[in-house]
Amino acid sequence: MLMPKPNQDVLAKRDYLVTELRRIVADSEAVIDDKDDLRAFECDGLSAYRQLPMIAVLPETVEEISEILTFCAAEGVNVVPRGAGTSLSGGALPLADGVLLGLGKFNKILEIDYENRCMVVQPGVTNLAITDAVKADGFYYAPDPSSQIACTIGGNIAENSGGVHCLKYGLTTNNVLGIEMVTMAGEVIRLGGKHLDAEGYDLLGVITGSEGLLGVITEVTVKILATPEHVSAQLIGFPSSEQAGDCVGKIIGAGIIPAGMEMMDRYAIHAAEEFCQAGYPLDVEALLIVELDGPKVEIEHYSKKIDEIAAACGATVSRTSQNEAERMAFWAGRKAAFPAVGRISPDYMCMDGTIPRSQLPKVLKRMGELSEQYGLRVANVFHAGDGNLHPLILFDANIPGELERCEEFGADILKLCVEVGGVLTGEHGVGIEKRDLMGEMFSEEDLKQQQRLKCAFDPDGRLNPGKVFPILHRCAELGKMHVHNGELPFPDIPRF
Amino acid sequence: MQTTTITSDTQIQDMLDWALAGKHGLAVQGQGSKVALGRPVAADAILDMSGLTGVLLYEPAELVMKAKAGMKVSEVKALLDQQGQKLAFEPPDYGPLLGTAADMGTLGGIFSTNLSGSSRVKSGAARDHLLGVSGFTGRGQTFQTGSRVMKNVTGYDLCKLVAGSYGTLAIATEMTFKVLPKFDTVRTVLVYDADLRAAIACMRDALSSVHDVAAAAYLPAEAAARIPLDYISKPGKSVIALKIEGPKPSATFRCDAMRKIMAPFGDIEVLHSHNSAEFWSLTGNAAPFVGEKAPLWRLSVPPANADRVMSAIKDEGTDCLYFVDWAGGLIWVQLVSESDDGGEAVIRGAIGAEGHATLIRGSETLRRQIAPFQPVSSTVAMLNRRIKNGFDPENILNPGRMYLDEDGQGTH
Ligand SMILES: Cc1cc2nc3c(=O)[nH]c(=O)nc-3n(C[C@H](O)[C@H](O)[C@H](O)COP(=O)(O)OP(=O)(O)OC[C@H]3O[C@@H](n4cnc5c(N)ncnc54)[C@H](O)[C@@H]3O)c2cc1C
Ligand SMILES: Cc1cc2nc3c(=O)[nH]c(=O)nc-3n(C[C@H](O)[C@H](O)[C@H](O)COP(=O)(O)OP(=O)(O)OC[C@H]3O[C@@H](n4cnc5c(N)ncnc54)[C@H](O)[C@@H]3O)c2cc1C
Questions:
Q1: A96 inside 8 A of chain B by CB
Q2: Taking CB atoms and an 8 Å cutoff, what residues of chain A touch B300?
Q3: Is the pLDDT of residue A495 over 50?
Q4: Any idea where the FAD-binding PCMH-type domain is (chain B) (predicted)?
Q5: Contact residues for A70 (Cβ-Cβ < 8 A; gap 6+)
Q6: Could you read off the pLDDT of A356-380 as tens digits, one per residue?
């Protein structure tokens, strides 16, 4: 994976930068320049790629962030914002000539506002901590990425993260009301707030999911919802993935939007069952977990309907959780699917693409063929309700060539997703992982149009460069300048 | 002014080439039902998109539809209805409010203005349902963003920018959006004769309950009297309305629970399905203000502030007619007393730093003179200008519809 070539001039003034950054932050220990200490930041959840940052800074106040960015902009230094570093696409991968801006110290809940059913928190607060803070009062924050115990709300906004509740309750973008952020020019702006629909152009909407390329988020206002009265899960097994996929479509077609609807293939079922004895049936090819929430009468009403639909689709097993412990057990297997697969293979790579659900049989079949072609096993766990696939490709990094084969296999899967009308990433972001595949989905002009947005916020391209876009453009050449025959001006700037 | 009826992409391309060559302003419009919303556009030609119709894809089991931007919303709704589905953000119809006919809105218009009805509190705004857009930028280039699947984080979410940009960034030709199932039962619980403060508390309790309230509005007696539905207008009292929808057993159960929660706030009635649908449609379309010309504002505020904001407006001696939607988060205010600025100073002053106000109806003179859209901070204004510049560097698309530049020139 090629990254922009480190700027030697910047590297040469590292000591000066460290000294100046120490002047900016109150706590001089918050500027890290020791190689061993920098190790902690060398990668995110996509650990196949590692890079030590030039310097890491862990500011404590918005003023410090503003000054750091102003300073870095003036010195021509690139900046990579970082939350908890759980990104699975390399979004928080440091740069050799860049400052890593860690937001871990921004971990305070600033306000719980039940009158307006929202909370104001700092970006470093974990996703789960938001729900934990209001749980006792009967509220929760809906988006629930599996990494919720660790990932931060700032990272969630940057990645527009989702979880099993997305189908009914939306992604991060549907649950964020406002933010405060600092631009690369050091300016602090507020977008939205406790009211609905931010005024003017929906900048909040484009910041969400912008992968740390447009600004540093320093405060967040999120919507909180009343915890549903009851929750129940149903476990439904099928002799084939096609039947399971068909059942998902029929449930939704019948007007039922479950709180969550997850699917696992035989491989994942067995791995999960071995790992945590969830009580999954082992004689099925596909397993659906359908969660319903609401009043008891509604759950019973829908549950009966779902049973009928499932039976008509050929389900061989259907069990409804009888109590909270059983519901948790149903989910335990699904939630442990990744580590469970991790136990049966030295390494695995988790892919993330979305497809139109009707294309599922075709995609599963083709993935099986690719698996044989590349000689690598693949396990499937996915958000069935919205077509978001998470194929896990198993490999052994110690065997020469396997990582590369795995990468190629992964790329083929994502291309397949686009081919059937889907997208390269449903929730993990483009980062560096899918950067070079962007051309599969967008024309050169579409990509340029996206980069013009980047230019509006960060004309010098200092924030998180090398991520998301396969080619770095200079803003001037994206502006009114005429490009003749694809001959680009500024041949000196990094392209990869 | 010349109007071109668009029936193909080639025509749009030609018009853009012409506009770019001569720096002509183009007014982009669907059926023109919202021409009177925002600043008057300085254009040399009108692009009438209403001929660009047709459904390109509709997969009910995947909850997705893709259609051409000139398609009438009423037709889309009728198609969805046949499959028991709906546009969950309940696109309002401001036609009658702005002095044009009803049922004129097009998909392009609805998504470009990001207007949503009463269910906004639960189901989100138009922008939350827009999955993909194809069209042209003001650079005269084709443009595509988003997709047709529910979950997509590939690149920047430019759909969000298109939604709410009032046609100042791009001309959308095709829109892909999320649809949702309709519930078989809709009930509306009414509480009569509460004041605004009690109503805000009542709506707060309802929305904080586990009963999944889909919409909550409060109409003071004066506004209620203008809703052509006996249950609302006849009692001659103010009314709090809470919408409950779902499969029948659930809706019935929650409706009963809601009656208990609301009992302390006043006498209760329940609207059945047909009446409920009628009521929320009238509310979403701001029916109490139809047929008049006085300046009309739409305020978005933190729900708990509604009482304070209204008091602040009235404390200024401003005579007005109002009602509240979105559990307090949306306030409609029609000025009764005369003022040169259409009440801008009083209203924006009352909102303070949290929230925004849009002038939905005002004379052309007024719309030129004041800012129909909430002014933004200088940094945000600069970002907006650069974004506009990135999409439409020659400022040919709906010039000046949203904001003026510092030099008074119409930009975005
Ligand atoms: C086991 C596991 C399971 C996961 N499951 C899910 C899942 O179900 N759904 C899902 O969506 N994701 C999932 N993820 C991915 C990851 O957790 C999310 O993308 C998460 O939102 C990243 O948050 P973070 O705080 O770790 O951000 P980081 O990894 O630190 O950063 C991610 C990106 O956000 C930027 N960023 C971080 N903070 C800020 C800020 N304050 N301002 C501006 N930019 C910022 C970074 O520059 C980077 O580009 C999973 C990850 C793991 C390891
Ligand atoms: C004793 C009584 C009490 C009423 N109380 C209320 C009240 O509290 N609130 C309120 O809003 N309305 C009330 N109504 C009016 C009644 O609900 C209306 O007829 C209404 O149009 C029913 O429509 P719906 O969509 O709510 O029907 P639903 O409640 O969904 O269905 C009830 C049944 O009524 C039938 N039905 C539906 N619409 C019509 C129609 N237009 N004409 C004839 N039959 C129809 C259908 O066959 C259906 O099976 C009352 C009517 C009566 C006779």
A1: no
A2: 195-197, 199
A3: no
A4: 1-182
A5: A185, A186
A6: 988 988 998 999 999 999 999 999 9
- CATH topology for B292-369 is Alpha-Beta Plaits (3.30.70)
Q: What is the pLDDT of residue A489?
A: 46
Strand order in the sheet with B45-48: B2-5, B45-48, B26-29
3-state DSSP call for residue A161? coil
* Residue among B124, B246, B383 whose CB faces A174 most closely: B124
Pick A8-102's CATH classification: 3.30.43.10, 1.10.510.10, 3.40.50.1980, 3.40.50.300. 3.30.43.10
Cβ-based contacts of B163 with chain A (< 8 Å): 202, 205
Ligand positioned closest to the Cα atom of A82: 1
Nearest to A44 by CA among A108, A1, A87: A87
Bridge partners of A101? A57, A81
The per-residue DSSP string of A397-413 comes to TTSTTHHHHHHHHHHHH
Asked whether the CA dihedral B45, B46, B51, B56 is positive or negative, the reply is: positive
Question: pLDDT at position A490, please?
Answer: 46
What are the boundaries of each domain within chain B? 2-181, 185-284, 292-369
A:B CB pairs within 8 Å = 271
Q: And the tokens for A306?
A: 């779902």
Q: Is the CB of A335 under 6 A from ligand 1?
A: no
Share of chain B above pLDDT 70, in %: 99
Rounded to an integer, the average pLDDT of A77-95 is: 97
Residue of B nearest to A457 (CA): B383
Instruction: With CB atoms and an 8 Å threshold, state whether A206 touches B389.
Output: no
Spell out the residues 6+ positions from residue A463 whose beta carbon is closer than 8 angstroms to its own. A78, A79, A80, A81, A184, A212, A213, A214, A215, A216, A457
Q: Can you tell me which residue has the tokens 């040919």?
A: B396
* pTM assigned to the model: 0.94
**In terms of DSSP bridges, do strands B45-48 and B2-5 run parallel, antiparallel, or are they unpaired?**
parallel
**Protein fold of A229-433:** Vanillyl-alcohol Oxidase; Chain A, domain 3 (3.40.462)
Q: What is B185-284's CATH topology? A: Alpha-Beta Plaits (3.30.70)
For ligand 1, whether the C-beta of A44 sits within 6 Å is yes
Cα separation, A267 vs A337, in Å, equals: 10
Q: If phi over 0 gives left and psi between -120 and 50 gives alpha, with beta otherwise, what is residue A283?
A: alpha
Q: What is the pLDDT of residues A58-71, one digit of tens each?
A: 999 999 999 999 99
Q: Among A194, A387, A446, select the one facing B354 at the smallest CB separation.
A: A194
The pair of structure tokens assigned to A131 is: 């729900």
User: Crossing angle, helix A241-253 and helix A360-374, to 10 degrees?
Assistant: 150
Contact B166, B115 (CB under 8 A): no
Task: Could you please state the CATH topology (level 3) that the domain comprising A109-226 is classified under.
Answer: 3.30.465
A212-240: pLDDT as tens digits: 999 999 999 999 999 999 999 999 999 99
Q: State mean pLDDT over B155-183.
A: 96
Domain B2-181 belongs to what topology?
3.30.465
Is the pLDDT assigned to residue A481 strictly greater than 90?
A: no
Ligand nearest, relative to CA of residue A208: 1
> Where residue B61 falls among pLDDT bands split at 50, 70, 90?
very high
Ligand 2 in reach of B274 Cβ (< 6 A): yes
CA distances, B411 to each of A148, A357, B39, B405 (Å): 43, 42, 11, 6
Task: Report the candidate in B15, B116, B8 with the shortest Cα–Cα distance to residue B70.
Answer: B8
Alpha carbon of B104 to ligand 2 centroid (Å): 30
| A419 Cβ contact list (under 8 Å, min separation 6) | none
d(CA A435, CA A455): 18
